[in-house]
Amino acid sequence: MANLTIVSVDDEYPALQLIQKYCGQMDDVNLLKVFQDPEEALGYLRQNRVDLVILDINMPYINGIELLHQLPYKPLCIFFTLETQYAVKAFELDVVHYLVKPVDFETFRKAINKAKDFLQFRNSTEQQKKEDFIMFKSNYVMNKVLLDDIQWVQGFGEYIILVTRLKKYMILERMSNFEEKFKNLGFIRIHKSYIVLSSHISSYDAAHVYLKNGEKLPLGRTYKNSLKAYLN
């Protein structure tokens, strides 16, 4: 895999030194530039595409959120900041991770690895082929889950619960959006409140869908014909 190209922007030089140190300890990472001046960083980023920007938020002249909005493309982003009140805004901006200073190397390494995973996923979807995992945001960070580990998806209004073998993830997303985003991976709606992977279906009857793991889920009347057509 090609190196993850990174630019870091922080008006505090010790923070930039720490990022340089941490990036130097990681494989497949190329820290191209560091900037204390966010306006200078914006000029560079407008002329040079990078995979990831690591941004402080509270900076003079242009804060990290404003800088991100002014870029002509959308790189991956990790906020690296003392501020805690912008976590919800970061969620809305689809940032990979929100790191609150001080940050140890292991926490930083995990955030960079999430960026690598998400970049790999984003690039692979352009090839229009099935993948063996999905990426999604939950609790302000990107998560990677193997398709084989997914049990079902259940809707609760503006949220969905992704149920896996080991844990449940709450995701701020409507069922219809999830269905549209991942339909090419074999997800199918079986009820107004349930989505499953077709490959995990063992059988179904008039009222239920039975999964290979032994679970039984309701089958909505309006979804019977589409399920039958899909599986046949």
UniProtKB/TrEMBL annotation:
InterPro entries: CheY-like_superfamily (IPR011006), LytR-like (IPR046947), LytTR_DNA-bd_dom (IPR007492), Sig_transdc_resp-reg_receiver (IPR001789). Keywords: DNA-binding, Phosphoprotein. PROSITE patterns: HTH_LYTTR, RESPONSE_REGULATORY. SUPFAM superfamilies: CheY-like. Residues 5-116 form the Response regulatory domain. Coiled coil: none annotated. Residues 144-232 form the HTH LytTR-type domain. GO terms for molecular function: DNA binding. The modification 4-aspartylphosphate is found at D56. Pfam families: LytTR, Response_reg. This is DNA-binding LytR/AlgR family response regulator. It comes from Chryseobacterium lathyri.
